[in-house]
Amino acid sequence: MFGWRARLGVVVPSSNTTVEGEFRRALPDGVSLHAARMPLESVTVAELDSMADDAVACAERLAHANVDVVAYACTTGSLLHGSGFDGDLERSLSETAEVPAVATALSVKRALRALDAERIAVVTPYTDELNDREESYLNDAGFDVVELDGRGIEANIGIGTLRPEDTYRQVRKVVSELELNSDSSSRSESSSKSDSEPTSNSKSESAGDSKPLADSVDAVFVSCTNYRTFPSIEALEADLGIPVVTSNQATLWDALRRPGVAGGAPGRLGTID
After folding, report:
1. What is the DSSP string of the chain?
2. How much is the average pLDDT of 168-180?
3. Which of 87, 134, 199, 203 is 20 to 30 A (C-alpha) from 121?
4. Where is the composition biased (Low complexity) (predicted)?
């Protein structure tokens, strides 16, 4: 029997081509995946707003497969109306399917808190309108969004064509900007110090050094469940020295915890129960 360990029900936008592929490759043995789809073509406020009612209908149908947990796999769709809406969405899906439910936006917050991350850099494929909403959502949740970079893509099918190397390069671009800003700040502080303090015959070895990335941010968050990220997570963590959280990774990690299944999510997050 498939799903002898757990059956994961996932609700995805109709144009999402990434969630099922990433989840299936990462699921532990004995866990099966069962999907239902909500109509969405463009990642806009209007289309995202219409998905909540569709999500409930999807959860009802997933219950027919006796799933053990339902995951609403859309980041902006679960944060669209700010704090409170995310929890209401989870409760609505849980009551409908009569099993635990998670929504990506809340899963991301749980993941960042599990990693003790407060200062974060955010990378997205979104337009400015959605980036602004996401930044407000994260700030309201107590996180400090130090840097945010979006690709400005509206068509969800276009987001799904992005490759893991696109994720990697976009994150490295943001990190480079952070390191440049940190280096400029260090030089400015050093210059101010030298103006106010007696000069020394010895050169300062640290005046021009960049601060470690961990001094600027605690983690990087890559948003969007249609942005393929799993193959790049561990490489980014190894190269940057800080945790990387992605929408699909956080959703899978959070969902698997509900039926008590260990493993699955890649990266440092996957080592946390």
Report:
1. -TTSSEEEEEEEETT--SHHHHHHHHPPTTEEEEEEEE--SB--HHHHHTHHHHHHHHHHHHHTTT-SEEEE--HHHHHTT-TTHHHHHHHHHHHHHTS-EEEHHHHHHHHHHHTT--EEEEEES--HHHHHHHHHHHHHTT-EEEEEEE----BHHHHTT--HHHHHHHHHHHHHHHHHHHHHHHHHHHHHHHHHS---SSPPSSTTPPPPGGGT-SEEEE--TTS--HHHHHHHHHHHSS-EEEHHHHHHHHHHHTTT----S-TGGGG--
2. 92
3. 87
4. 179-189
Instruction: Quickly tell me which residue has 């001094």 as its tokens.
Output: 215
What's the CA gap between 206 and 77, in Å, rounded?
45
The end-to-end CA distance of the chain, in Å, is 26
- As a whole number of angstroms, the distance between CA 77 and CA 226 comes to 12
**Tokens linked to 95:** 């009551």
Model pLDDT for residues 143-167, shown as the tens digit of each residue: 999 999 999 999 999 999 999 999 9
Domain boundaries, the chain: 6-171+212-271
Beta-carbon contacts of 166 under 8 Å, excluding residues fewer than 6 positions away, are none
Residue 210, both tokens: 């960049």
6-171+212-271: CATH, from 3.40.50.12780, 3.10.20.30, 3.40.630.10, 3.40.50.12500: 3.40.50.12500
pLDDT at 149: 98
CB 71 within 8 A of CB 102: yes
Span 19-33, pLDDT tens digits = 999 999 999 999 999
Q: Answer left, alpha or beta for residue 15, where phi above 0 means left and psi between -120 and 50 means alpha.
A: alpha
